[in-house]
Amino acid sequence: MVKNNTENTNRIIRVAAYIRESTKDQDKGFSPDNQVRMIKDYADKNGMKVVGWYKDLLSGTKSENRGDFLRMMIDAEQKKFDLILIYHTSRFARNVREARKYKDKLRGKLNIDVKSVTQPFGNWNDPSAFLNECVNEMFDEYYSKQLSKWVRDSFQEKRLQGYQLGNPPLGYYKKEIGYDQERERKIYEKKWRVHEKEAKLVKKIFQMYASSKYSMKEIAVILNKENKITKYGHPFTYSSMKSILSNKSYIGLVYSPRKNYPEVQGNHTSILDKELFYKVQETLEERKSKRGRPVANHRFYLLRGLVYCYRCIKHIKGKEDKTDRTKMLPKMYCETMRWKNKKGEMVEYPTYGCKFSRENKSCSQEKVRCDVIDKQVIKYLEGFNVPDEIVKKTLAKLEEMLTRPADEEKITDNSKRIDTLEKKANKLNFIFKNTEQMTQEQYFNEMKAIEDELKLLHQVAPVVPRQVIGNTAKLRQQFLREVEDFLKDFNNLWQADIGNEERQAWIQMIIKRVWVKGDKVVAIEPHDRYKPLFSAHRKNIVHSPLATPLTDLFYLHKFIFFCIILTYEILYYYTCSQ
Q: In this protein, which residues make up the domain named Resolvase/invertase-type recombinase catalytic (predicted)?
């Protein structure tokens, strides 16, 4: 039986304090300040020394992962503390599976206990204490699920009462009636009021489109020339026109852009008469049936969803901290151009085009061939130079894995990232199903990015050759030399026999945006967790491939991905700990 660290009275117990908070819990005593105070008091009374504070302050939709929790688990493996103190079991995890997984690892493998300062369960080796803790964890998960149901029910009741759930569109506003000092935010009345000036603009838009003389793009161009702006201060685009023209709030209904929501009469005043509104809907359907399906949906684009127009960066300058700035990001769409050459043969090539050039003609960026941009990005990635210190850490971690018995658990530790992504997906599902903060397009785009990364992480899980694990030192060293050669030359990745989808998934995992001006890539923006790797790399440095290729025995393309991910994770956590 593993000895409980809290019983060791010969030395001062080193403590890690974990704080987790979400906005909806602040009024239940779970505020960060209260958690800190209670943990400090407990440590002082029991002669413990807090050697590290780990805080994940989650708020609404902004939480992406529990970075400090993962950092704490890394530090636990390095024996930086003897005990973890939490305020309440729900702060450690809110589902039984996750709680058991990490507590079993901490207690069973690392001999580090997890203690709640407000729930005296006793020694975790005691069956009664174990049962008590498990029951509390079960109730934590029950409360989380019950809270979700209450939120869904309250949203549904609000809709049935005729109140809208989201922010008012162009033509409406909510009157400010006070200020919440505790939550530090303004208070607005529930009912929407008509904004007379904006309402006139809405009527003008509907009348122009109903006349069949203008397209959505042409209306946007006209309004922008008149210096008209959207509800949030942006220029009009095809997308904003489409959103306005399909919004049933303007005829007095409680509207959601989602499908299968029942139509309920709202409490707000309608701006349009139903005859004009439904005439516009008929015109939309007629034009929609004539357009057909875009050719782009049938083609493969390596950088789909990642390419942005640098000429249009002005639309988000100074608005980097605004929550709605993503709506104005100048993402470039994919389109395949087709024509007949002089021989009468059908010729086609894929392109990236600026949405603002297409939607309101406000950009001079011309369509650029995909292969021109793709080659520049690939050339940049071929020249990655991993710092020697990180290569050493990666090889040390691999060597540790390879010396384990062949029947030991999976050698990869991708489970941490997988858990984070699964939680993010669950949160997105909840937000999409129960609130109106996201459109279907936003939801599908974010879920696709998560699913692509999950697919890649699952692919690279059990990929180290079984004949190497636990085998002779000579074979292990040969294997590690091959890995070291690869890590010192990323060009091997692009020469490997891998499919386009795997290559695309890897690119999407590390790259957030590719900024294009003309036919040149002017900037590559990585995801936050991989910025340290990019900062160590210079665009004009491209290393030639090594003379010695990987042997057939070890040339496993899935293992290439594993090495890259392992390197990135070590680099990420190493950077966080500095």
A: 14-162
